[in-house]
Input
Amino acid sequence: MHTRISKLLILALLMGCSAVFAQTIDSPKTNTATSAASGQPLKTSLLPPMQAMAQKLKTVKITGDPDADYITLAKIHTQGTHDLLKAVLEVQSDSALTQAAKTMLSTAETDLASLNTIQKELKPGRANAAFAKQQRRVVAAIQEKIKQSASSYKLTDQPGKNLAIVLKDQRQDAANLATSYLQFGKETELRNFAQQSIEKVKLDLGIIENLFK
Output
């Protein structure tokens, strides 16, 4: 009996999420077909922080120093995650998603503080051409995902699904940056941060998947 009631409560929460996310689309009459036909992207309040992050990543000059490059990119990406979660909380009412977003936001703030601390003690390292090439590919992939998210052929007329797409992409990209760095990085604290980042991403992706089933 208790299990049945719990399942009904969870279902009600998730239905509430979908209803609130419907308010994040610029026009309630706009759908995927309309956007594609007009050539305009399907806009949501979630895209601006991602596009701002992509622009910052574009200005970063990859030096080939694994430690220095990773910490620069990780700070920009983590700030992007922070801003995305803030956008989620601005449009989302109290729900299971709200609580998850608050937890992820707190983690992002802690991660930014950790990266700032590590960066202060970081010493210059040797450039590695293989790392530089790989990081450029990772950054290019992040930028391409965000570009696609602003296009009607990736986002849909389902606001909840759009959120899942953008948030999952953002978290997976954090793991990709960390995985690439760990193949070349030397600084112990930064390596520990990257390894922990990958584990956090796995947990977050599991949460997102369960919320939008």
Q: What stands out?
A: The two ends are 22 Å apart (CA to CA). The CA atoms of residues 135 and 180 lie 7 Å apart. DSSP finds eight helices and no strands in the chain.
